[in-house]
Design goal:
Shape: globular
Helix content: over 70%
Order of helices and strands: HHHHH
Number of helices: 5
Oligomer: single chain
Distance between the termini: 34 Å
Number of strands: 0
């Protein structure tokens, strides 16, 4: 059997671990109806893991394609969540928390992009 045949299983298992980490972070942080800190934190953590560790350091070190796929697509995909970002945004909108909504979207999208650009410029 070729090792590529095991990529989907590795991605699946890593996505489960990433989702579990997301859940644990959300239970660790106190829930706040004013601002979705948990979602913002896991998405920043996912940006760090994907851009800096997986696509930066591991690719530079010549890590196998399988491990990069497992960690990038699986773990980081399970950890980060665009759908939760949008759900949290709708909740803030429905609650009339327009300032919190604007700050949340600015930090999530703008801050995430800046973080990815900053981390992605690291030269190994």
């Amino acid at each position: 059997m070729k090792k590529e045949q095991f990529y989907p299983l590795g991605i699946f298992l890593a996505a489960m671990v990433g989702g579990l980490v997301r859940y644990l972070v959300s239970t660790w942080l106190p829930a706040s109806p004013d601002f979705p800190w948990g979602t913002l934190l896991v998405n920043y953590l996912g940006i760090f893991c994907l851009v800096y560790l997986v696509k930066g350091y591991l690719v530079y070190k010549g890590t196998s394609k399988g491990l990069v796929l497992v960690l990038g697509t699986g773990f980081c995909g399970g950890l980060t969540t665009f759908s939760s970002l949008m759900l949290d945004a709708v909740k803030l909108l429905d609650a009339g928390r327009y300032l919190s909504l604007g700050i949340y979207l600015l930090l999530s999208i703008g801050g995430g992009l800046l973080l990815a650009c900053f981390l992605g410029r690291k030269k190994w």
